[in-house]
Amino acid sequence: MRRLLAVFVVLVAGLAASAPSPASPREYLVYALNLLRAHSIDRDSLDWPEVEADALHLAANASGPAGTYPAIQSVIHQLGNPHTSLLTPAQAVPPLPQTIEVPTSWTSGDVAVLTIPQFTFDPAAERRYVDAGQTAVANADSSRPCGWIVDLRGNVGGAMAPMLTVLAPLLDEGVLGSFQGPDGTSAWTLRDGQVLLDGKPQAAEANPVRLARPRPPVAVLTDGRTASSGELTLVAFRGRSRTAAFGQATAGFVTGNEAFRLSDGAELLVTTSRAVDRAGRVYDNTPIRPDHPLPAATTNDEVVAAATAWLHTQTGCAHR
């Protein structure tokens, strides 16, 4: 589980920054430590001169970048944030664009079910993911459903903006949430189907789909593998009217990461912010409990049935 999270939680709030080419393992290590010191939300919890001295001692015999990894991981452990991690060059290689899972939909009576999988950041795959998602929403909407189920189960994270772009027709325009970091707050908003971070577009395209029955009730499905950007996508629905979550508690990585690429191809994923929903509730690395908890042994049909039954209690979707 931890490895899967580390591989897929790549970018939440920005593109990976490129490191200069250090001349020695010492410079490589110092560069990585400076990134943690400058950007981590937990940076004030450490005595950095002492931490750096200990890390340099631990990596004193390193002959290359890989030899400094244990020292970097030791500092990450001291920061105490489970969402911060170091990916080796092999772990940091994204999957082929054509292999990335895309959103799908189906309908059950007067309810549409939209599955939103994780999305590992890859510019070549983003349009494929968003286009498939737009098609899934449009196809499901053709039957004029009165309510929607958004399935985030198994969504272990990645880049948030493509997920929210696909879901734009189901989200109210305006502020969806924000990132709260030590240097300030950055709001995520939706305007005309475009996901913005502090007013700047975060996806390559807007979502032009408009629902036949706007602002429907929405049931969101979660489980223990709904993590990171999967959880942030849930946060975007928190505080929305006629919206409730069903299933099991999420994984508990409700924070924003920024990825920094190191000179050997490794990536340092630094937790830079906490999530805040539209109602002002602040989240951290603790699981989000659903509004309607269901036992882990509940079958998929039973989960969908429970969500559907709730949707049928909502205005405009009362079961006839």
Automatic annotation (TrEMBL):
SUPFAM superfamilies named among the record's database cross-references: ClpP/crotonase
Signal recorded as keyword: yes
Superkingdom, taxonomy of origin: Bacteria
Ranges of residues in domain Tail specific protease: 80-295
Example GO biological process: signal transduction
Single Gene Ontology MF annotation: endopeptidase activity
Record keywords: Signal
Stretch forming the signal peptide: 1-23
InterPro entries named in the record: ClpP/crotonase-like_dom_sf, Tail-specific_protease
One Gene Ontology cellular component annotation held by this UniProt entry: outer membrane-bounded periplasmic space
Pfam families xrefs: Peptidase_S41
This protein's name: Peptidase family S41
